[in-house]
Design a protein that fits this description.
Helix content: 40-55%
Strand content: 5-15%
Structural class: alpha+beta
Largest sheet: 5 strands, antiparallel
Number of strands: 5
Oligomer: single chain
Radius of gyration: 26 Å
Distance between the termini: 33 Å
Number of helices: 8
Shape: flat
Length: 257
Amino acid sequence: MLPGPGLGAGARLRNYFLTGLVVAGPLAITAWLTWSFVTWVDALVRPLVPVQYRPETYLPWVIPGSGLIIAFVALTMLGFLTANLVGRTLVEFGERLLDRMPLVRSLYKGLKQVFETLFSETGSSFRKVGLVEFPSPGMWSLVFLSVSPGQQVSDRLPPEEHVSAFMPCTPNPTTGFFFYVPRSKLIELDMTVEAAAKLVMSAGMIQPNGNDGQKKLAALAAAAQTVQAAQAAQAGGSGTADPAPAGTAEKATATAG
């Protein structure tokens, strides 16, 4: 967007404006979101702190972020206390009390599982990205992969390995569709979850690795079509639709990469 030689005054002004917008826009939005989060935490934490312990009691101005610091220290201390025997005993006692409350019990257990999955080091959060043929043949959608289904679900599924998949919507990746997909119908991508989220939120305008990423996606889609054509030919020759052997899609992915 930088102005080039031979441009008129209007074109140069427009390019200068767009260049400034590209530079200042992300900075302004990031600063606004950060400031909003800090003030929101301060508004939640400050009323819980006694007046004599607030910094503004002894200073002529309010220190932004003091509530965030207090919340960080308090949560760290809570984790430290919970790690020992006395803290675990108190937590177990509180959970037993919550188990006696019909509505609160279900809400607490659900939220606890979500937080353990997202923030635990051994949690099963999204770590891989794949391609699934959806919503119609020849059309491919990005999905986030987590873990295999539990025993209760896998017993009801066809006798084939399945993977839990979440297909995010554009431009809000927090909404979408969750389903179990056979691993033979899935193409795993050598792409990070962050890059896939940017691809979804930008509706394809931000491609991973620029044009190389777009060419790689096209090659992976072509490899998937080749695998499906081979499966159809095999089913037509044998008269029965045998599932593709495990790892076929992964071999096609490695060949395309």
